[in-house]
Write a structure and sequence with these properties.
The protein is mostly beta strands. It has no helices and 8 strands. About 0% of the residues lie in helices and about 55% in strands.
């Protein structure tokens, strides 16, 4: 049941420090682009590696460390319209 605020329930993800963090973002179409934020700020290309495939976009952070713990959000953007996607709460142990 969707919440009245339209928010998305975050998925909790735990990874071991030094391993790769992989988060997926399912998009509405193959024309859409995945946009990622970390703690509410857009992720710069040098901060993470975004792997692409036709419908499933993945954010890959090689060798994750404690500084990568936090909230990640994926948006699907197509023709100027932005739709909220998955939200992840990541803990790096």
């Amino acid at each position: 049941i969707p919440s009245p605020t339209g928010s998305i329930t975050p998925k909790n993800v735990t990874v071991v420090a030094g391993t790769d963090l992989v988060l997926t973002c399912r998009l509405g179409s193959n024309l859409a682009q995945a946009l990622w934020t970390f703690e509410g700020r857009a992720l710069a290309d040098e901060q993470a590696l975004v792997l692409h495939d036709a419908r499933l976009r993945a954010l890959v952070v090689p060798g994750a460390g404690a500084q990568h713990s936090g909230t990640y959000r994926c948006f699907s953007e197509e023709r100027g319209a932005r739709l909220g996607g998955e939200v992840y709460r990541v803990a790096v142990l």
